[in-house]
Amino acid sequence: MITTYPASTEAADAARISVQGVTKTYNLAGKEFFALDNVSLDVADNEFITVVGPSGCGKSTLMNVLAGLDKPTSGQAVVDGKVVSGPGPERGVIFQQYALFPWLTVRKNVEFGLKTAGLGAKERREKAEHFIEMVGLSQFADALPKMLSGGMKQRCAIARAYAVDPTILLMDEPFGALDALTRVKLQEQLLDTWSQEKRTVVFITHDVDEAVYLANRVVVMAARPGRIFDIIDVDLPYPRTEEMRLSPEFTALRNRVWHAVYHQTTGAAAGSMPSTLTA
Amino acid sequence: MTDTATRAMAAQSTTPARKAPKVRAKNHTLMLVLNVASVIAGILIWWGFSLAGFRIPAPVEVAERAVTVIGDGTLATDLAASLTRVLIGFALGTLVAIPVGFLMGWYPVARALIEPWVQFFRTIPPLAIIPLVIVLLGIGEEPKIFVIFLAAFFACVISTFQGVISVDRTLINAARVLGSKDGGIFIRVVVPASTPFILVGMRVGLGASWATVVAAELIAAQNGLGARMQQAQIFYDLPTIFVNLIAIGILGLLMDRILLFTENKLTGWQERR
Ligand SMILES: Nc1ncnc2c1ncn2[C@@H]1O[C@H](COP(=O)(O)OP(=O)(O)OP(=O)(O)O)[C@@H](O)[C@H]1O
Ligand SMILES: [Mg+2]
């Protein structure tokens, strides 16, 4: 069951993020439940990875391990050559459940991380202003989270994560609660910032379309036990455009991912690289 | 299908939040009128009972006595005495309870050490301790304040502790990934997140303090609202007892309203469900 990894392999060296044989078990009514079973994955610097899979397949668990919020039962996550042992400023996280501080206004929420980083009041305000505008919440800068809709809350959470300028973004279904229009707009923005400022992104979604549209590679997970089922390369060029969504290549890729997720069959992808190592 | 959808939409558009302000204002006035009518009806019934020969003083008698005790300053002295005891005991109790509650919620070791004592002594009504404190502390101010302190402390310590352990894990995680360390998380997340719990505890504690002060004065005091009623009882002086009871009620209500107001001010960020 336990696979040991050499301290450094060539692939792991080049990778910005390296998940090495990560297993996370929970005790479920006295029995061991594998939320993640021996998951390995390398993400290159500046790569955009999307993760799709059925509910409960361990996507959020994987993200928590990468964020340093959860310790794996065995295996390890390595970021920039260092074993992850806690959160770090280079990793920004957007949670599935907004996680806004309800007693702080939108502005204060966005300034939260900047304050921790020790920025002065003026600088904080300017930076916050910029990102609040980016997600289109300027009018609501002084509103409390309880006055925001689900999608607005999520946009506030995005602004808060962007504000501290992380070079790795870990996003757990960030656009899940948004309407189609805002979603497309934020997808564009995300791709824009990603290509301009070069970030490494791990993006969890349950939307197959979104997964293909954004990614260099789509990681498809399977449940019980949580594992990587397939990794599908998306060799469409960037910048991605709206027309591309209608192209036959896009449709073919989307169908492939769809089959992998919902039928857990690889179909045409039978020869693709195996992603889980079995000892 | 469509029918259900229409009905769902209709139901949505009549949620209370969407009601026109005018309707709400009208409702408000109606409620106020009903409140006043109910109080007047209560007084009339009281009057009826006294006329019917029950051994209770008529409202007029009580009002006359109220004017007398307000005029000669007795009521003010008694109020001041009781209020001072409550405020000192309550303030001390709350001041100690909040840090202890935080300790219990934040450090499992502290919880394990403190919780058995809190749970045990919480079950003893503070009044039951009066005989003990009178023997140990005499019949001055200290025993009364101490008993009130206990009442306020136990009410507040439990709810502070509850507040700390029920802080949403994801909020703590959010603070951690934004760079906060333990100290920052405590000040910037745990304290604000548990404020609503603390304030509820304070309200309960204030009620308990108020109940305790009057009872403590009934047992052992020279002044205060409770002591005044105790003396009136010896002389079958029912109007005085009524005046003091009403004063206790009004004062308790006022203090509760002040705390409620503070609570709404400080915890208005909460989503009401
Ligand atoms: N603290 C926990 N205790 C026990 N089981 C847990 C815990 N956290 C997660 N799990 C289990 O681990 C599995 C994976 O959970 P996870 O939240 O990672 O799923 P997910 O892929 O993010 O699902 P979704 O798409 O619904 O968000 C689930 O079956 C869940 O029940
Ligand atoms: Mg999830």
UniProtKB/TrEMBL annotation, chain A:
Superkingdom: Bacteria
Keywords: ATP-binding, Nucleotide-binding, Transport
Pfam families: ABC_tran
GO molecular function terms attached to this record: ATP binding; ATP hydrolysis activity
Residue span(s) of domain ABC transporter: 17-248
InterPro entries tied to this protein: AAA+_ATPase, ABC_transporter-like_ATP-bd, ABC_transporter_ATP-bind, P-loop_NTPase
Database matches in PANTHER family: ALIPHATIC SULFONATES IMPORT ATP-BINDING PROTEIN SSUB, TAURINE IMPORT ATP-BINDING PROTEIN-RELATED
Protein name per its UniProtKB record: ABC transporter ATP-binding protein
Organism: Mycetocola zhadangensis
